[in-house]
């Protein structure tokens, strides 16, 4: 039984941050680490002690994690960035809140000794004879230690301590992945064999000048060794003690939203009955008033979980073995559906015009109360511009931008994903059947445009970064332009029906172009729904997108390693890359005709590269295997950590079904017949992270995981369904039998029929929930029976 771990976090805002710059302000941004790996970096909010980010992330972590840490940094143009403070949340703390954390949390100081990371591989064994008891500690290796030296590495050695006894390994210089293979021995009789004591294994960075730097420790109770004479495995290195201090709020605070979702996934066959019921309700819809499994599911979902359930249903219906057709799903489901299948389409249509707005950075304002004449001197060459000139210039610029946006949208019918068009067609059809009157002619258009414009395109224009259209948030000037354009596009999506009824009368100069756009919008929507469902190709099982669709593209620095040659940082050359579900191709420029490509089916690992390998940050490696079984490595450098995580995640997703994936890799480069990371010549390295990905629209479909979430919601609402549809109706039936017979009224017969159908639907659904509950119990019992080995849960990995 597999385990799916997903971590959702949103960095909302900060308050009362300390000033780090001479100007009396700071330029804060956040770095997020899961254990020792940087998974996200927010945008920098310049000159602000109360920054707002509003950035959210989803991380899929099949192997689990220990700690989620948020660092608040102050960006400096010259020199190193300053550390303001941090917030660390253990997995246990997050898991203790099933609905998630949503709080202001004070920042704590960052103590270098507390910033430990990595693991150590040990084998400890007690040797007893008539004369003495000895502890043999085989120190094998360590991995991913914290860099303490300016070179980005450390000079680690290990020390084992018991009471007043100690022993040390040799020092291995310039590595974060040391390999010792040394056995240390302590005579416990000399130190006092106390079963209540513990053996401490410490890792230190040796320094020629000054004191050594602490790298972490492992504490093993001696009682464990008495029960299990041989204890072997990888152990997580821990800080020296719990000295974290929130500084009494003096370092400011962050508002965070964090939620952990951990699911144990059964084999597929156990979920088929539930999937069949969910799909049946969509493929063969019943009468409007009749209950379905979907309506029962809606009754038991909470407000907090509704968006997640909506996205889950969307993914179930996007599976190639099911068909997505319109039904009375909540608007959240439609919104999540459009993000899931329409993100590439959104980028193709909007990105050019969004980039243009950011590059031109024009001053635009229509509200007389907000016009600042000091910001717009370039509008007139005769001196300061008047308010009328500012408004006239702003109207012209907004009309130009809005025209470009509308032209891009109405000419994009062929670019729109077929599955999205099919859904809009079904929605159009259902609304037309429900409102056939001539006075409701516009309702069928409003139903589609409400989702298309108001829930997808307008929000993307308002906050391009949240839709991956830009790497950073807009500045104040550009943000105002985007807001005005989003307002105008919302009016277009409403077909201009609400113009003149709001408080913002200063938007009136845009009314003519909005009204002129209505006809083209209706024509666009008519073309959008003009599609034959039977001719729509089903998406491949491995992804939402078609093979020919570019999942991600952009410039990267590339170096390909062939043999044990010396690799230098200047050998990286700029190339433009395209990623699809079939290949990773590249060329000198986007317009270059000749492209080289790496078949995705040959990818067997996609991993980060240690900074020390090339003295460069944000480098990843794509390891491929040719037809003869030989491994080849392509090194790629990204411009920042967010881009690195996005490329890692995207390539891992398209290669997730590949065979022959490597279980381990080297985070360094092979140079001088040895690896720069561990200084060893062999190929065996550290474990791969092939399943760790960022959650986004390109997540591979996993019907089992999605159905497990639906089951969990139904399990939590089982008592409510049983009471409402089974117990209550049994009482009603008994009361009706006791009542004297009367002439049956058509309405009462109809109501009784609906009641019986509702009871049957609820009974079938609850039976499936019960079967799944029993299956989970059976598998968990088997796992408990099979796990007899001792595990030091707090430290061992």
UniProtKB/TrEMBL annotation:
Superkingdom, natural source: Eukaryota
Domain Ras-GAP span(s) in chain numbering: 298-494
A GO term, aspect molecular function: GTPase activator activity
GO terms for biological process, alphabetical: intracellular signal transduction
Residue ranges annotated for the PH domain, each copy included: 549-656
Region (Disordered): 731-756, 776-797
Entry annotated with the keyword Zinc-finger: yes
UniProt cross-references to SUPFAM superfamilies, sorted A to Z: C2 domain (Calcium/lipid-binding domain, CaLB) (SSF49562), GTPase activation domain, GAP (SSF48350), PH domain-like (SSF50729)
Protein's recorded name: RasGAP-activating-like protein 1
């Amino acid at each position: 039984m597999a385990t799916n771990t997903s971590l959702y976090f949103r960095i909302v805002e900060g308050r009362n941050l300390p000033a780090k710059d001479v100007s009396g302000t700071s330029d804060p941004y956040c770095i997020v680490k899961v254990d020792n790996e940087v998974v996200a970096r927010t945008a920098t909010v310049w000159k602000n002690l109360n920054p707002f980010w509003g950035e959210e992330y989803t991380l899929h972590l099949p192997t689990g994690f220990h700690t989620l840490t948020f660092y608040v940094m102050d960006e400096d143009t010259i020199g190193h960035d300053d550390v303001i403070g941090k917030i660390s949340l253990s997995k246990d703390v997050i898991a203790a809140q099933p609905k998630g954390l949503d709080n202001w949390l004070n920042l704590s100081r960052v103590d270098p000794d507390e910033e430990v990371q990595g693991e150590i591989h040990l084998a400890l064994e007690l040797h007893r004879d008539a004369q003495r008891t000895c502890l043999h500690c085989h120190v094998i290796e360590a991995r991913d230690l914290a860099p303490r030296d300016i070179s980005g590495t450390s000079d680690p050695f290990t020390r084992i301590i018991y009471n007043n006894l100690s022993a040390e390994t040799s020092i291995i210089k310039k590595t974060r992945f040391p390999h010792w293979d040394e056995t240390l021995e302590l005579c416990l009789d000399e130190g006092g064999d106390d079963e209540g004591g513990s053996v401490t294994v410490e890792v230190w960075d040796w320094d020629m000048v000054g004191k050594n730097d602490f790298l972490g420790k492992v504490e093993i109770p001696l009682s464990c060794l008495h029960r299990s004479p041989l204890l072997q495995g990888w152990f997580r290195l821990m800080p020296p003690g719990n000295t974290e201090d929130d500084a009494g709020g003096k370092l400011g605070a962050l508002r965070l939203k964090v939620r952990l979702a951990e699911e144990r996934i059964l084999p597929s066959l156990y979920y088929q009955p539930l999937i069949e019921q969910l799909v049946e309700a969509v493929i063969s819809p019943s009468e409007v008033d009749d209950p379905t499994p979907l309506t029962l599911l809606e009754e038991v979902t909470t407000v907090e979980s509704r968006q997640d359930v909506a996205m889950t249903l969307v993914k179930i219906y996007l599976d190639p073995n099911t068909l997505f057709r319109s039904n009375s799903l909540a608007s959240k489901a439609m919104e999540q559906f459009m993000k899931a299948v329409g993100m590439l389409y959104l980028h193709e249509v909007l990105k050019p015009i969004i980039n243009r707005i950011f590059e031109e950075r024009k001053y635009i304002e229509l509200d007389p109360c907000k016009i600042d004449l000091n910001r717009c001197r370039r509008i007139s060459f005769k001196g300061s511009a008047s308010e009328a000139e500012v408004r006239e210039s702003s109207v012209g610029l907004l009309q130009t931008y809005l025209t470009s946006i509308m032209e891009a949208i109405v000419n994009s019918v062929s670019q729109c994903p077929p599955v999205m068009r099919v859904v809009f067609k079904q929605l159009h059809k259902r609304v037309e059947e429900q409102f056939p009157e001539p006075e409701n002619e516009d309702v069928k258009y409003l139903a589609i445009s409400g989702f298309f414009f108001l829930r997808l395109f307008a929000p993307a224009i308002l906050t391009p970064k949240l839709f991956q259209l830009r790497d950073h948030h807009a500045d104040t000037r550009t943000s105002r332009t985007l807001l005005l354009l989003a307002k105008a596009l919302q009016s277009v999506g409403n077909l201009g029906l609400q113009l003149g009824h709001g408080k913002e009368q200063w938007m009136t100069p845009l009314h003519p172009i909005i009204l002129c756009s209505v006809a083209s919008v209706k024509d666009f929507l008519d073309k959008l729904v003009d599609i034959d469902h039977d001719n729509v190709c089903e998406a491949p099982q491995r992804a939402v997108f078609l093979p020919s669709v570019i999942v991600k593209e952009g410039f990267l620095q590339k170096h390909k390693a062939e043999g044990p040659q010396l690799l230098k940082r200047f050998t990286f050359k700029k190339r433009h890359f395209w990623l699809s579900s079939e290949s990773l191709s590249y060329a000198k420029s986007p317009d270059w005709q000749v492209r080289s490509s790496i078949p995705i089916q040959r990818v067997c690992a996609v991993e980060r590269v240690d900074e020390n390998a090339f003295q460069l940050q944000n480098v990843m490696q794509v390891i491929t295997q040719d037809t003869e079984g030989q491994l080849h490595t392509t090194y790629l450098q990204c411009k920042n950590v967010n881009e690195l995580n996005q490329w890692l995640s995207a390539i891992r997703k398209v290669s997730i079904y590949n065979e022959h994936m490597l279980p381990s890799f080297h985070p360094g480069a092979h140079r001088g017949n040895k690896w720069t990371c561990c200084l060893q010549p062999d190929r065996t390295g550290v474990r791969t992270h092939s399943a760790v990905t960022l959650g986004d629209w390109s997540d591979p479909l996993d019907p089992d995981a999605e159905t497990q979430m639906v089951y969990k919601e139904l399990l939590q609402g089982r008592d409510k369904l049983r009471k409402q549809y089974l117990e209550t109706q049994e009482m009603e039936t008994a009361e009706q039998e006791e009542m004297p017979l009367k002439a049956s009224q058509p309405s009462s017969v109809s109501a009784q029929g609906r009641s019986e159908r509702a009871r049957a639907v609820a009974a079938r659904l609850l039976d499936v929930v019960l079967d799944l509950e029993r299956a989970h119990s059976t598998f968990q019992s088997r796992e408990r029976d099979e796990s007899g080995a001792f595990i030091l849960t707090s430290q061992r990995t």
